[in-house]
From TrEMBL:
Subcellular location: Membrane
Protein name: Uncharacterized protein
Lipid bilayer topology: Multi-pass membrane protein
Chief place of localization: membrane
Origin: domain of life: Eukaryota
Source organism: Exidia glandulosa HHB12029
Length: 345
């Protein structure tokens, strides 16, 4: 049984393929570069000055980029629908639906892991010493997605394909609509909500407006304070580092929430007729997520995955001596984790 949908004019539908191709190239470049550096490190007989997986964040970001690449790869299969002018059930449809189920929740999961990790290190002053934690997180995320995929594939009813055009690419069909929530939407909205909950107090803490008892994190107090200045080679405002940290949830929300809202709005319509410009704008933004994460990796946290020539050093926090020191060493977060992790590795 085959169900076809007339695809909107190619001028609009091509935007999805363009966005996915851009993200695929960007994420693929990063992963190839990481692979080359790992190979060089393995062949090196000396101490490796530029490690790749030195911290928990390195592992989370690596699998975030990998999930973005898989998501982009699934979307690029839409080239088939552009060639034939419609989406149809079949082998390509099943392959695209399978890849999307396995990959769609990945960026949300690892973005959430990065948010929680950053909050714990900065606000709770947690020094991660065990490399088992990111390994457990990665195993859990992959186990969830693979088990979920196997469960819905095994529970598919005869005569009711699990994956159908929805309508401009293949995903879980409307007959199994309840499975779409744990496959993607639950993780998207959980990551969005929890990131906002964590990063708002994180921003205030970095600015010096929030004091937290690291042994009892529920004990907090607000105060007005001048922004501290961290000296790291040349002076720069710590508030600039705060904005860099906040770029992760902001970019995720901007690129993913419109996609989710538009998909939900289209699902509740009686037909698949949707406003083409707004629909494909929101969808395309979502598929630029891989490119956005690569740019964030390079521009805001260059020491992750060995992208810096030298590892960062601890900075000096300068604050008003009449007030308690509340600012943490944001610039040196990777070096703090690295030194703690290397003690156990």
């Amino acid at each position: 049984m085959s169900v076809d949908y007339q695809v909107l004019p190619p001028d609009w539908s091509q935007s999805i393929v363009v966005a996915s191709s851009t993200s695929l190239i960007a994420t693929g470049f990063v992963l190839v570069l990481v692979g080359v550096r790992c190979a060089r490190n393995l062949r090196s007989q000396q101490n490796v000055p530029r490690g790749v997986f030195n911290t928990h964040l390195d592992i989370y970001v690596f699998f975030l980029i990998l999930s973005d690449m898989m998501q982009a790869l699934a979307s690029i299969l839409s080239i088939q629908w552009l060639r034939q002018g419609r989406t149809t059930c079949g082998d390509v449809c099943y392959a695209q639906g399978s890849l999307k189920v396995i990959s769609d929740a990945g960026p949300s999961m690892y973005s959430l892991a990065i948010a929680v990790h950053t909050f714990m290190v900065i606000v709770c002053r947690w020094e991660p010493r065990s490399s088992r934690i990111p390994a457990i997180v990665v195993c859990l995320t992959w186990t969830y997605r693979l088990v979920f995929y196997a469960a819905i594939a095994g529970a598919a009813e005869p005569g009711e394909p699990l994956f159908r055009p929805t309508p401009f690419w293949c995903w879980i069909s409307a007959h199994y609509a309840q499975e779409r929530i744990p496959a993607f939407y639950f993780w998207l909205w959980s990551c969005t909500g929890l990131s906002i909950v964590l990063y708002v107090p994180l921003f205030l803490y970095i600015r010096g407006n929030l004091e937290v008892d690291s042994s009892r994190i529920w004990r907090v107090s607000l105060r007005r304070a001048p922004q501290p200045i961290e000296r790291f080679g040349t002076n720069f405002r710590l508030a600039d580092q705060s904005r860099k940290m906040l770029m992760y949830p902001v970019v995720y929300v901007v690129l993913s929430v419109p996609f989710s809202v538009m998909r939900w709005a289209a699902s509740f319509r009686a037909t698949h007729a949707v406003p083409a410009p707004w629909y494909f704008l929101c969808i395309s933004l979502h598929y630029y997520e891989g490119l956005a994460n690569v740019l964030l990796l390079i521009l805001t946290r260059p020491s992750i995955l060995g992208f810096s020539r030298t590892m960062p050093h601890r900075g000096e926090i300068v604050d008003d001596p009449s007030r308690p020191r509340v600012a943490r060493e944001i610039q040196a977060i990777e070096s703090v984790e690295s030194s703690a992790t290397q003690e156990t590795m």
